[in-house]
User: Which sequence fits this backbone?
DNA sequence: TCAAAAGTGTTCTTGATACACCCATGC
DNA sequence: GCATGGGTGTATCAAGAACACTTTTGA
């Protein structure tokens, strides 16, 4: 089947930058999920999951579909990032790509879950391999967006397990923003928003005092948000 | 001339939301430039300036080109906003549109300057006519972006003449953010950044005390910006 | 001389920062 | 019993908010 147009059209793709946060390591890291390409161009190179937009789906749907098809990940936070359209960004011909950012809880999305998961891997964002196309730029743009967004919207919680400790939350912010926070001041601030609920559970297992577990009160956040509330860190 | 593809592709367009600020009126207003369509679909309706992306130009270049072709405006601040891709947003067939926001100095861009200027008009953003396609949504998204951006980046100056008074600057911020500022606190804050230079000129003509004119020190801003400086209002 | 906007400082309140010790747990 | 991270309060400082009068100009 083939199609004819009066004027040539760029191909239209979506690509996803997927961020995960590993708080279990010695030094916690923000990571991105990449796919090893098994077809040309850039065969054998790492790239962001993505693919072409179909004629009857929205861009959001295309991003969600590619995310699921290539990594098995679904039902996660995802938002449009930026559209990349340099004429030479794809050697096959003009391809414009609408990039998305997804935030996932690493624990829920260990690999081997996805269809093509054998060729997928998480990389720390400052130890990325060489990436196909202009994907290095896409990741860089996504990191900037994440850093900007995390400061005035509570998106960071998307990167944590449903239940988390205050130290984990602090580590997350410190990792993303590349700075440190004073423990007491951080807790005071977070406390002030009244957006965390003690679950009653405790995180134990390490040779130190057990830590209380919390979950994010997204209902309350949505209610506050409507009244012009500002989360700011 | 016609072109054949194996898979159908959406058409790719750019659209521009152009903001101007009229500070001469009784109640100052943020305005948007619209074009009256003289071809189907939506013939006779107002729409944002825009058109299809050519195969050899970047998205930024396409937006700048359409801006110039349809309104005569060039060399202004312009940035990518968001990409709209609902499958039914264009009755002619699947068309994805990369929207841009431009900020212009109204005084420099009175109409009749552009090629098709006879069919262009400025509308206050809260008295927009019915717009073609999903352009109402595009404008709404642009306003939100402007409101967010103006608070932590000095983009507002793009909307003013090169020389402006502090009252004009304050009116601009009050109009965009839909709030008022205390005159003394506002001036103190702006002063604190050291980003305004007195030009020596005065704005006179009204039956009240003449006002000093300033210009924005963009060199100094760029220098500060590199060292992690934050403009915040 | 009047109306209208320009210009200018101080006080108070609030939020941000700095800082150090005891507690519970697993080994 | 010790090493490790969890948990807590106060004092200081800086920035934001509130607030009113004098000056200059054109008509």
Assistant:
């Amino acid at each position: 089947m083939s199609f004819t147009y009066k004027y040539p059209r760029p191909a239209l793709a979506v690509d996803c930058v997927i961020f995960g946060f590993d708080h279990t390591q010695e030094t916690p890291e923000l990571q991105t999920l990449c796919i090893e390409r098994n077809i040309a161009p850039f065969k054998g190179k790492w790239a962001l999951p993505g693919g072409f937009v179909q004629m009857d789906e929205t861009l959001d749907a295309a991003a969600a579909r590619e995310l699921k098809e290539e990594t098995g990940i679904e039902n996660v936070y995802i938002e449009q990032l930026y559209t990349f359209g340099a004429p030479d960004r794809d050697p096959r011909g003009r391809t414009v790509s609408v990039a998305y950012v997804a935030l996932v809880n690493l624990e829920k999305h260990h690999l081997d879950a996805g269809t093509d998961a054998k060729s997928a891997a998480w990389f720390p964002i400052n130890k990325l391999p060489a990436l196909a196309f202009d994907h290095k730029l896409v990741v860089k743009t996504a990191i900037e967006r994440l850093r900007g967004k995390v400061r005035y919207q509570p998106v960071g919680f998307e990167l944590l397990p449903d239940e988390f400790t205050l130290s984990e939350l602090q580590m997350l912010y410190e990792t993303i923003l590349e700075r440190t926070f004073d423990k007491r001041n951080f807790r005071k601030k977070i406390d002030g928003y009244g957006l965390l609920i003690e679950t009653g559970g405790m995180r134990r297992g390490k040779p130190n005092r057990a830590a209380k577990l919390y979950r994010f009160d997204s209902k309350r956040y949505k209610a506050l948000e409507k009244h012009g509330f500002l989360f700011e860190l």
Chain B has a mean pLDDT of 94.
